[in-house]
Design brief:
The chain is of the alpha/beta class. Helix content is about 45%, strand content about 25%. The two termini are about 40 Å apart.
């Protein structure tokens, strides 16, 4: 089966012969792909929607893969036992929610080796959590679908140092890898921040003045990253 470019990029980070937990599995496409392509030995797909779950179970059954894909109803890592999986995929939700899922079930999280995380928003807050909680970001990848950028983070346990604050906004691995979409993403962010600054510059409150200066600083830092990319 063919995956979307986003799901394919996620699948490409999944280690060979892994046992995977796909949290919020949605349609169940990723678990089926991982088993059919002999990437994973077993996948546990979870979802909080009973209606979605019924459809996923039917889809898995139609593929003859129910011995390899376990579908469970539940929230986050609540339905996963410690050491039951070695790899977790948490994709298609906000960075703060992903952070909360990892933080809520520390015993399960601490038993997992590979973390493949794809926040729809607040990627900077998720990266900050990873740096502050003894995770190392091993790699990152950008994907663009329907004019939206997706940041995919592959992390493992282990202390890492944050070299620059801008690496929360723009992952350091994206810069080191010279990701093909990085320049476009940075320019998109710069344009967005200029637009926000234009809307708030005449609102004379402490919060708007503070926000204006914060965005101005971020734009300067993003322009520095652009120079770094172009000079290497």
């Amino acid at each position: 089966m063919m995956l979307s470019e986003r799901l394919l990029a996620i699948a490409n980070f999944v280690p060979k012969n892994s046992i995977v937990g796909d949290i919020g599995t949605d349609h169940g496409y990723l678990p089926v792909y991982l088993i059919e392509n002999k990437i994973s030995k077993k996948v546990i797909g979870t979802d909080i929607s009973l209606n979605s779950l019924k459809k996923i179970i039917q889809y898995v059954d139609s593929k003859g893969l129910k011995d390899f894909i376990d579908i469970r109803l539940g929230d986050g890592l609540d339905v996963i036992k410690p050491f039951e999986i070695d790899t977790v995929v948490i994709a298609g939700m906000g960075g703060l929610l992903i952070k909360d899922i990892l933080d809520k079930n520390k015993k399960v999280t601490d038993s997992i080796t590979h973390f493949i995380l794809q926040p729809n928003v607040a990627a900077d807050k998720l990266r900050e959590y990873l740096y502050e909680n003894n995770f190392t970001i091993i790699d990152e990848k950008l994907v663009k679908e329907a004019n939206k950028f997706y940041e995919i983070i592959y992390a493992k346990k282990g202390k890492a140092l944050l070299n620059k604050r801008i690496h929360l906004e723009i992952g350091e691995k994206l810069i080191l890898n010279k990701d093909p979409l990085l320049e476009e993403l940075i320019n998109f962010k710069i344009d967005l921040y200029y637009e926000i600054m234009g809307k708030i510059k005449h609102k004379d409150t402490f919060r708007t003045r503070e926000r204006y200066l914060e965005l101005d600083k971020k734009i300067m830092e993003l322009k520095e990253v652009l120079k770094e990319i172009e000079s290497n």
